[in-house]
UvrABC system protein A
Amino acid sequence: MNEYIEIIHARENNLKNVSLNIPKNKITIFTGVSGSGKSSIVFDTIAQEAGRQLNETYDSFTRLFLPK
């Protein structure tokens, strides 16, 4: 099993081809100046992929009852 969440060439909002490995099962803190892309990494990239993977684990009937 992969021990890292691997992001390759992320290009959301202020991110320009950012690649990084984030350790799983650990607390990770994103810091930086305003406008550096912290929220883009967390909300637009990681959370979106986590939601996609979660929805994949349920059949289509069960997905009807999941919160949006």
